[in-house]
Amino acid sequence: EFPAGDEGYHTYGELTEVLQRADSEHGDIASLSSAGSSYQGRALHLMKISDNVAQDEDEPEVLFTCNQHAREHLTTEMCLRIVERFTDEYGTDPTVTELVNTREIYVIPSVNPDGSEYDIEGGRYKGWRKNRQGYYGTDLNRNWGYKWGCCGGSSGSPYSDTYRGTSAFSAPETRAVASFVESRVVGGSQQIKAHIDFHTYSELVLWPYGYTYSDTTDTMSREEARRFQEVGRKLAASNGYTPQQSSDLYITDGSVNDWMWAEHGILSLTFEMYPASGGGIGGFYPPDERIEPETRRNDEAVDILLTEAGAQP
Ligand code: 0X9
Ligand code: CA
Ligand code: CA
Ligand code: CA
Ligand code: ZN
């Protein structure tokens, strides 16, 4: 459980309950399933939100993922807010209603439920980052299959916090989310047009690539790079974060955004949420009073990305 005073955060069990309630109370627009199972067997909850939710309609699809890193609990709350806002405000808020009617929204609130539960075991934060595979775990955001382990942006040592795993997609969690994304290729075309992977912390909007300092590559044209920059800056203008290319922060290989863009052409960004700086490990554990303001802060960015998913590049 969460430490005393931080009960506003949701444990995996509480997250499951909230999602099941949203599914049953909003059955016409919300459908809860699972993308697969974690290493320890927890369901990787997958919420779809759209009008006529039981049908696969020809609407731009958008994916939000949270909590790849165990200790980044604020991100789980971000995905929960997306679920609650697009269900509870449907039919009331005109922007929400329009987006639910014209998009298919997918939310995976916890990509790393095993690590997250371990991090709060005994009511004390452990500063845990990876999943719980093997003794030391794998950094899920170094385990994706595009240029896995290529470039010094991950570690081959199981003790490292950026351990990339034994092979690309060796973690059941990344394999499951990747398989879900692959399942959205319909008639040869990827239906998911845009994606945000939420992390903490530093208040950044990051776009690919992470594996190279180059702005352009054979899979990132000048026009495509410019679109990432334009969208990234627009998103950052809405929430006050700093926009930059991922590798401007540091080189990572095997990160989710690189795979989503290179393999599926998905406009995929990382948000590093509150706080901007300071606190070292404490920066991962803002008091639960910060949940509401710091998740609300991204409402407009979420709407912008959903709108952008309908724009033809
Ligand atoms: O290192 C990560 O996976 C992310 N930062 S975190 O502090 N949440 O661990 C950043 C990933 C963004 N990608 C690159 N910087 N290439
Ligand atoms: Ca509190
Ligand atoms: Ca629909
Ligand atoms: Ca569809
Ligand atoms: Zn992270």
From TrEMBL:
Biological process, per Gene Ontology: proteolysis
UniProt entry tagged with the keyword Metal-binding: yes
Keywords, alphabetical: Carboxypeptidase, Hydrolase, Metal-binding, Metalloprotease, Protease, Signal, Zinc
GO cellular-component term (any): extracellular space
Keyword Endoplasmic reticulum: no
Cofactor annotation: Zn(2+)
Catalytic site positions: 272
Record EC number: 3.4.17.18
Catalytic activity: Releases a C-terminal residue, which may be hydrophobic or positively charged
Any one Gene Ontology molecular-function term assigned to this protein's record: zinc ion binding
Domain (Peptidase M14): residue spans on this chain: 8-309
Function: Carboxypeptidase that possesses the specificities of both mammalian Cpase A and B. Thus shows broad substrate specificity, being able to cleave Cbz-Gly-Leu, Cbz-Gly-Val, Cbz-Gly-Phe, Cbz-Gly-Lys and Bz-Gly-Arg in vitro.
Family statement: Belongs to the peptidase M14 family.
Protein name: Zinc carboxypeptidase
Provenance organism: Saccharomonospora xinjiangensis XJ-54
Parent sequence residues shown: 106 to 418 of 418
